[in-house]
Amino acid sequence: MTIDLNSMPRKDLEKLRADVDKAILLAKSRELKEARKAAEQAVAEFGFSLADVTEVAAGAAKSKLRAAVSVPRYRHPENPELTWTGKGRKPEWFKSALASGVQPEEMEI
Length: 109
Known about the structure:
The chain is mainly α. The chain is built from four helices and two strands, in the order H-H-E-E-H-H. A hairpin with a 7-residue loop joins strand 1 (74-75) and strand 2 (83-84). The protein is elongated and about 85 Å long. The mean pLDDT is 88.
């Protein structure tokens, strides 16, 4: 089926575009339902529901965010509660220790 768009009046082209947009939305909705059904069948083979799997995925994403927290690399020479990861701006206690002659290696954890 070949349509000569160049010879069609604007009104017919706009109608065609509206019809195509509607058909695309319906196809997308139909394909989404099919994909959901296939996903439900796939997880059911393992004894889970789609909600179980998506909850696990959401929990994994949250745990990755928590795992991204850096561990301290340096500790204050006199106050072990003060630490620094070595990333970002240097804390004042680190700068002061360097100014007084303490080497970074001496403060490593």
